[in-house]
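Batch job 17 of 40 flagged for manual review because the log was empty.
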Amino acid sequence: MPKIAANSIALHYESFGADSAPAVLLIMGLGAQLTRWNAGLCDLLVERGFRVIRFDNRDCGLSTRCDGMRLPEIGAALRGGGTLPTLPYTLETMAADSVGLLDALQIELAHIVGASLGGAIAQIIAARYPQRTRSLTSIMSSSGNPLLPPPSAAAATALFAPLPAARDRASLVNDAIARYLPLASPGYPTPLADLQRMFGDEYDRGYYPQGVARQLAALFASGDRRPLLKTIACPSVVLHGRNDPLIPLACGQDVADHIRGAQMRVVDGMGHDFPVALTEVFADAICAAAQSASSEKPVSSR
């Protein structure tokens, strides 16, 4: 699919299924390209009667890169416990990007699904744009509550470690795998060859580490979303891995605790990734939220 104008930028997107089917908008996490929503999941949701849209967030993949915007000094801000410098954009901006994509595609209502940072964006959409939201599925995300458990030491190191001195394809693919493994699902390991292929494809498609810093700054600046979560009225499912080392299970539970009527689903053996083996689990969570939102077209479950 080509890029499309949305919220004064260009977003690269892909659409699966009939345009007339109920829409599911998939919002990916920090620095992750649309391909992290694997095609098998998209196809499965189409089989269950949906139109599926996945896209690259701003500053990622093939969407607009905010090259002219200053890189925030996140490390200094964290060490000093102070505030971040002026932000290039916020999660509210990224939520407006997503809604702008719906506008450009002439989609009035959608089931909103987000993972990790994308889950935070999805929460904001459900709260700020209730007239555009059929249901919410928040996957391995947090409420922003500052009292929640932090990442494990290994997960924090994986997130904040500097890039390798060598910036060739092989070195950067190996670095991505090294960062991925401490976050991976212990119950659903992904073969090394698959990881090499995935990160190699991502490098070739749209490697852009500068965007990660700006997205991360937007996430940190989002703050405590609990008051916002309490305003969400749409049917909601919160899915979280019991073994998530980056965003611990308590973070997902806190999201569910602050959304009225939210259903909590905990997956044993799941970390902070998207194993292909859990594709049906992700689809079932999305479909459960969607089915609660509408009695017009029952959603089948395998």
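Reviewer: the log was empty due to a logging misconfiguration, but the result itself is present. The longest strand covers residues 9-16. Unflagging and moving on to job 18.
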